[in-house]
């Protein structure tokens, strides 16, 4: 009786908690290959945790893209790997060559640590960055199911599988014609999506000895602006959030020798010289920036501008720099959803050569055009840049009425958010193609498969607006024709608009291409009988030739703030791998899986990775399982060979070592612009891992089950992009990367790829499932959740490991608990599905790193985020399926965070956690013609 109540409680937990791990039932006694093993066997719960999501489940949730699907996985990281935040990360962490791409990141270990497969085989990585498979290239409309292996799998698949494997299984042997259209429109406007697909096939392997099928899917996502959502608001000073930028559309004047804001040097040893800044009557403080709107208390007269909150961004220099400055909420200018157009084509022909032998040809092609729209550039007019506003210019801004020391015989230095130049717009077009010829079949109890494939991915980036040649723009600004102080209701003159247009660069900017040629084969079957059953084995080989090239179509150094990267021409490497696997029945109840793989990279070296797993089922309703393995991640071509590239950090950077020696000196404590270099490292070693899991599955009654799997991953020599901020913060350990001028100021910081110390990750996956009948209605409840026990990380060798779970972090948010839950009911032609998605809260970023006292309204915790999706499906019309759904049923806004936009996009919210679209209505119509 107690056991029955326990089962009912488990089912109830499935209703209230996470998501959708249902095993696709195989035909009786059919041997199938499950992700994580090369041995075909009768389908059953195995030694490794594999989550299976059917295409029907994907459609009923209103999911239209592979990125959306992966973000629903509780095991996937909460990071900047999506198309919104991934293109708006500043500094060396930014992947400026993956514009318009999105990636998976199981366990939050990064895209490179998640292996993405298509029908169990590799596909080409993203054409620009070359680091990982772009999820946009997956033909979601042709998917039969998705298998997620939540365990390390380098012993089976080689590199990239440290965090796990996502295997997209395509439809095969389809006969008939099916068309579907779907729409998803937001209640608040913007961000609508559309999709149309056609699936057709003819022939039967059983009767005709052939099957030919093709699938075409076209989808489109419309633009969603930050201005379309009220929660995108970077000016909430009472809650600890305020813009930390003085690059404003109505420019702030800056000080400096030779400019209008200068005063005589008080040093008696330097008579006749001047220093930057100004003073006010009765106030000895030397101020560094000024704006007449600030003096008038009218910063907010310009849309998006506000009085700079000096008390919030308090440090030794900001009162002097910003007391009389305006700020700009450029975080609200971000485009929350980029315009995207995708087309995926899949064609497959399968031919029965003999009763047990088949040949197939598979052709896959896709095109994704994603338009990355970033905020307008920030321009600094300085003596060094030779773009000061000239004396006598039509818009010369004389501040003598506010600043008696203002020298109107000198030109003006200023900082300007160049909205009139336009949003920086990048059109990224990625073409993917793969041709695969394969053979599979069996000789008695021995199965075989072999294939040869060629895959390519190429990305071309065009700059279509918002970018100008540096020298042309600076000369235009120095002419005085362009007005950096356009007031409310005003605009640039036609002459100024024409001049701005003449400075712009539009055209092809950069291009990249990856190639993958692969020959693989394996055999599996039974060796001999043991007392407890048959000893099964698999053995195989994998030969790959990987290539990568990247080039600039124009010199990025000529274009202001261009997202450049150094060229890398025609790099390639050969990978040779052999592997073996045993399935050993030790007793009737205990089964062992043993695997080992050796990979030999022509440019990196060889590595051997073993794995051992067990499956112990002492009773029909209880199963214990576990695994232990080693893994590795080979460095990418970009990480190894990308050339050195000079870039700049935004203003306000602190040289911690220099500032400690020279307190209050701006050249050390508030650096306007700091150069840094980044690039590849030919001395990189493969990242390695040791990992394991242990868990159990219980099914006390038919239809009620629960699984709990505790897992741990230790990585070593993690390949990370060392940011200049990290170098500066940890100058004592990384001082060799800080290059200084003779006077002690920083010349530049050397950043780039290194083998870091590593990470130590622990967590628990929970899966619950219950199903039953109430009269003639069937119900199903499922749960999929991940509890992150610990994520400890060290940026460099010798640093103490830092716990990141439940805390704000710039790369990923390691949330304590994430889940998806579903409750479905079906009766006759009707079915309904309710889904709950939950992400736990975390400690917020302390405003200004705690330098100023947080305001009374600041809350240190970001709240949890819960949304509900509801859908209904009707199949009562002949050959027709209609599905209507509401996503984000209660229109939940993203939780507030006081994090500003620097390093991670999001003013008042965080796109790594939440969906900005709000409540939306989806409609899908599917019709089978035959």
Automatic annotation (TrEMBL):
Family: Belongs to the TonB-dependent receptor family.
Bilayer topology annotation: Multi-pass membrane protein
Domain TonB-dependent receptor plug per the UniProt entry, residue ranges: 47-165
Name used for this protein in its record: TonB-dependent receptor
This protein's record includes keyword Membrane: yes
Limits of the TonB-dependent receptor-like beta-barrel domain: 404-889
Major site of localization recorded for this protein: membrane
UniProt biased composition (Polar residues): 246-256
Organism: Janthinobacterium kumbetense
Annotated keywords: Cell outer membrane, Membrane, Receptor, Signal, TonB box, Transmembrane, Transmembrane beta strand, Transport
Signal sequence, start to end: 1-21
Entry's localization field: Cell outer membrane
Gene3D superfamilies assigned: TonB-dependent receptor, beta-barrel domain, TonB-dependent receptor, plug domain
Residue ranges, annotated region (Disordered): 246-271
Entries under InterPro entries matching the protein: Beta-barrel_TonB (IPR000531), Beta-barrel_TonB_sf (IPR036942), Plug_dom (IPR012910), Plug_dom_sf (IPR037066), TonB-dep_rcpt-like (IPR039426)
């Amino acid at each position: 009786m107690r056991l029955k109540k326990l089962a009912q409680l488990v089912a109830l937990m499935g209703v209230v908690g996470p998501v959708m791990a249902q095993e696709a039932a195989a035909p009786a006694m059919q041997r199938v290959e499950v992700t994580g093993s090369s041995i075909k066997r009768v389908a059953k719960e195995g030694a490794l945790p594999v989550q299976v999501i059917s295409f029907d489940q994907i459609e009923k949730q209103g999911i239209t893209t592979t990125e959306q699907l992966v973000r629903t996985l509780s095991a996937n990281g909460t990071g900047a790997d999506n198309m919104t935040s991934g293109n708006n990360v500043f500094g060396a962490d930014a992947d400026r060559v993956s514009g318009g791409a999105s990636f998976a990141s199981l366990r939050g270990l990064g895209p490179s640590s998640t292996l993405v497969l298509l029908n169990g085989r590799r596909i080409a990585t993203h054409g620009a960055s070359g680091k990982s498979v772009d999820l946009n290239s997956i033909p979601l409309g042709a998917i039969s199911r998705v298998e997620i292996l939540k365990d390390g799998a380098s012993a089976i698949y080689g590199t990239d599988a440290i965090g796990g494997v996502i295997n997209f299984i395509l439809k095969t042997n389809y006969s008939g014609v099916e068309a579907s259209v779907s729409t998803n429109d937001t209640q608040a406007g913007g961000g609508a999506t559309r999709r149309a697909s056609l699936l057709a096939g003819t022939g039967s392997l059983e009767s005709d000895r052939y099957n030919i099928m093709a699938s075409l899917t076209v989808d489109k996502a419309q633009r969603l602006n930050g201005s379309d959502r009220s929660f995108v608001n970077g000016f909430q000073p009472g809650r600890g959030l305020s813009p930390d930028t003085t690059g404003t559309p109505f420019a702030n004047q800056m000080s400096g020798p030779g400019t209008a804001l200068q005063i005589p040097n008080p040093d008696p040893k330097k008579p006749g010289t001047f220093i930057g800044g100004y003073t006010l009557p009765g106030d000895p403080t030397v101020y560094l920036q000024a704006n007449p709107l600030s003096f008038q208390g009218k910063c907010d007269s310009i849309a998006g501008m506000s009085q700079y909150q000096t008390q919030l961004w308090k440090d030794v220099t900001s009162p002097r720099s910003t007391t009389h400055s305006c700020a700009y909420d450029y975080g609200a200018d971000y485009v929350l959803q980029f315009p995207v157009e995708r087309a995926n084509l899949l064609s497959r022909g399968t031919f029965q050569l003999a009763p047990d032998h088949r040949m197939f040809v598979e052709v896959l092609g896709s095109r994704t055009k994603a338009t990355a729209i970033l905020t307008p550039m920030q321009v600094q007019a300085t003596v060094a840049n030779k773009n000061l506003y000239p004396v006598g210019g039509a818009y010369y801004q004389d501040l003598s009425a506010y600043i008696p020391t203002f020298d109107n015989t000198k030109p003006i230095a200023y900082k300007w958010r160049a909205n009139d130049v336009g949003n920086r717009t990048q059109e990224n077009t990625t073409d993917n193609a793969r041709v695969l010829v394969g053979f599979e079949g069996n000789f008695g109890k021995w199965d075989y498969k072999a294939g040869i494939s060629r895959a390519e991915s190429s990305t071309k980036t065009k700059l279509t607006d918002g970018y100008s040649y540096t020298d042309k723009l600076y000369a235009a600004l120095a002419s005085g024709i362009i007005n950096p102080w356009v007031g409310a209701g005003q605009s640039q003159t036609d002459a100024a608009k024409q001049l701005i247009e003449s400075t712009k660069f539009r055209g092809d900017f950069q291009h990249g291409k990856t190639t993958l040629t692969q020959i693989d084969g394996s055999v599996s079957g039974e060796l001999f009988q043991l007392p407890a059953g048959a000893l099964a084995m698999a053995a195989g080989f994998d030969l790959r030739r990987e290539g990568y090239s990247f080039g600039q179509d124009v010199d990025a150094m000529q274009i202001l703030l261009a997202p450049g990267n150094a060229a890398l021409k025609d790099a390639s490497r050969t990978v040779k791998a052999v592997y073996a696997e045993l399935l050993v029945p030790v007793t009737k109840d205990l089964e062992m899986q043993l695997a080992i793989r050796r990979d030999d990279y022509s440019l990196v070296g060889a590595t051997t990775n073993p794995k051992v797993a067990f499956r112990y089922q002492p009773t029909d309703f209880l199963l214990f399982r576990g695994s232990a393995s080693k893994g590795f991640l080979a460095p990418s071509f970009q990480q190894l060979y990308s050339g050195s590239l000079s870039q700049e950090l935004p203003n306000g950077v602190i040289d911690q070592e220099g500032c400690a020696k020279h307190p209050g000196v701006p050249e050390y404590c508030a650096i306007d612009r700091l150069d840094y270099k980044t690039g590849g490292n030919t001395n990189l070693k493969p990242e390695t891992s040791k990992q394991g899991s242990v868990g159990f599955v219980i099914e006390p009654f038919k239809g009620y089950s629960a699984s709990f799997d505790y897992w741990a991953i230790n990585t070593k020599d993690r390949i990370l992009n060392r940011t200049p901020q990290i170098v500066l913060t940890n100058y004592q350990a990384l001082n060799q990367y800080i290059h200084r001028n003779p006077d002690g100021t920083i010349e530049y910081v050397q950043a780039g790829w290194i083998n870091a110390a590593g990470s130590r990750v622990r967590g628990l996956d929970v899966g619950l499932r219950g199903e039953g009948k109430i009269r003639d209605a069937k119900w199903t409840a499922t749960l999929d959740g991940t509890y992150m026990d610990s994520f400890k990380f060290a940026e460099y060798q010798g640093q103490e490991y830092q716990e990141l779970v439940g805390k704000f972090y710039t790369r990923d948010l390691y949330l304590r608990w994430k889940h998806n839950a579903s409750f479905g009911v079906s009766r006759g032609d009707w079915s309904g599905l309710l889904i709950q998605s939950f992400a736990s809260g975390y400690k917020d970023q302390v405003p200004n790193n705690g330098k100023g006292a947080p305001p009374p309204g600041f809350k240190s915790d970001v709240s949890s985020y819960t949304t509900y999706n509801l859908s209904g499906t009707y199949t009562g019309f002949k050959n027709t399926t209609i599905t209507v759904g509401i996503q984000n049923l209660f229109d939940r806004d993203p939780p507030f965070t006081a994090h500003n936009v620097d390093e991670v996009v999001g003013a008042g919210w965080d796109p790594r956690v939440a969906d900005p679209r709000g409540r939306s209505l989806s409609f899908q119509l599917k019709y089978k013609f035959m």
